[in-house]
Amino acid sequence: MKSKLFLISLFLITLNIFSQDYITKKDGEKLKVIIKEVNKNNIKYVDYEDPKGVLFTIDKVLVSEVKFAHGKNLDVKDPEEDALYFADDKLNNYMLNFSAFGGNTLGLAYERALKPGQSIMAEVKVYGLGMKPDFEDSRSGFGLDLYYRLKTKSLFSNGAYRPKHILHGAYFAPSVGFSSGDITYNDYYNYNTNVASKYSASHSIFHFGIQYGKQWILQRKVSIDASLGFHYYFGNDDSDENGNLYEPLRLGNLIGGDNKLFGFNIRIGFLGGKDKIVTKN
To answer: The whole model's pTM is what?
Structure first.
């Protein structure tokens, strides 16, 4: 009786040691293996036909399915897309555009993370609420810009115990916007009499373009964002019959003419709100 129990136990142990697992790659190839180790980014295994042979490693991003011999499947989601890494991150970013403020414009931006690597942002601009330059007499109007931000680099760093904040990093941001307003300039053209004449201009335009920038998240609470951009616009820019502007078109954080705008932004903000990318049931 003891010998039978021993043989059965030995058989079960052997069966467990050499049980076959399956790894299905994204190209459809199915590997019959014995899985030795599963890490955050990869899976280590040996060939089922050569259990004492070479130890192979495959990145999880190349795998569509893992099935163990005991019947359970492994979730092989790309770790860079796993929302649990960002469970403690605030999703809302409230910012003031300091470069727009220097152009006599109050620019208030709101950014919200959608998922790792992607966010949307809206910025409202009110002209005339900022630092007024000497050549400007008065200004009024408003603008609205919309952005879709795509991160250009991984949020994971080698050796770090956790990834950077979900809103951290370099990005490209396609954008569209609308602007309408009036501006009156002081034109000191007569230096002998020092008499100033007023020049007024109005605009009502739509624009689209792309921004490239980088955002830093400090202590997971404060954001610093810097970006450059290039845009095309169409609409009324108060140019003459030859398409010439007396003064450049100034939209706070954008400046240009001849249907082209160049943008520069320095935004500082804070992260807030109760929203998180992972919520408890």
So the answer is: 0.74
